[in-house]
Structure formats: C-alpha cells, structure tokens
Amino acid sequence: MSDIQKAMALLITSFDKYAGKDGDKHTLNKAELKELLKIELGEMLGKAGDKTAVDRIFNELDRDKNNSVDFQEFVTMICSLTVMCHEFFASKK
Ligand SMILES: [Ca+2]
Ligand SMILES: [Ca+2]
After folding, report:
1. Which domain range does residue 76 map to?
2. Residue 48 pLDDT class (50, 70, 90 cuts)
3. Residue 39 belongs to a domain with what CATH number?
4. CA of 71 to the centre of ligand 1 (A)
5. For the chain, is the Cβ count within 10 Å smaller at the N or the C terminus?
6. How far is the CA of 13 from the centre of ligand 1 (A)?
7. Which ligand is nearest to the Cα of residue 27, counting in written order?
8. What is the CA(33)–ligand 2 centre distance, in A?
9. Sign of the C-alpha dihedral, residues 29, 7, 38, 22?
10. What's the sign of the alpha-carbon dihedral 60, 34, 18, 79?
11. Is the pLDDT assigned to residue 51 strictly greater than 90?
C-alpha cells in the first residue's frame, strides 16, 4: 500500500473506532466526536476539551444538521485541517 492508501485506511479505522461506541458506527454523536477530538487531535486543537469548543466544532461539521457527524462530514474536517497544516509548513520555509 502507498502512504496515501495507508492514510485513507487509517481515517476509516479511526472513524469506526469512535463512531461505534453507541452501537451506530455510521455516525459520530457529540460525545463520540468529543472523544475523537480529544484523543486524536488534542494537541492540534488545543481547547477541544472545553464544551463550547466541542459544540461549535460539532455544529460546523454537521452540515446537514441531522445532529450527527457522518464519515463524509468527518473527512471534510480532516481535509480542512490538512490544508491548514500544509499552509503552516509552507509559510515556515
Ligand atoms: Ca455512533
Ligand atoms: Ca450530519
């Protein structure tokens, strides 16, 4: 597998790991999203542990407003974060 294929597989595995906690592994509820943010992106998001930040991120991610974050919505967040990282490293050169 190439690095990009590995990264895609990891994204899917990570989503399943957190999304499955309440028995529905197709979507993340707010508690599941909070745990994912805290454990996987804690350092990057800094204040993701605080409740207002989690609410805000959850509302931003839940584009179709059905009160849960599906895989597509999750991947959209990862893509934006990846673009931010890329810009950050590009600006350091
Ligand atoms: Ca779930
Ligand atoms: Ca949704």
Report:
1. 3-92
2. low
3. 1.10.238.10
4. 11
5. C
6. 14
7. 1
8. 12
9. positive
10. positive
11. no
Q: Are 74 and 61 in contact (CB under 8 A)?
A: yes
Please enumerate in sequence order all residues whose Cβ is within 8 A of that of 76, keeping only pairs 6 or more positions apart, or say none. Answer: 61, 63
27 neighbors 19 (Cβ within 8 angstroms): yes
Number of domains in the chain: 1
How many angstroms separate the alpha carbon of residue 4 from the centre of ligand 2?
Answer: 26
- Listed residues: CB within 5 A of ion ligand 1: 19, 22, 24
Percent pLDDT > 90 in the chain is 69
Helices (H), the chain: 3-19, 30-45, 51-61, 71-92
74 CB-contact burial (10 Å; exposed 0-12 / middle 13-18 / buried 19+): buried
Judge whether 69 and 22 are in contact, CB under 8 Å: no
pTM as predicted = 0.84
| Segment 46-55 mean pLDDT | 72
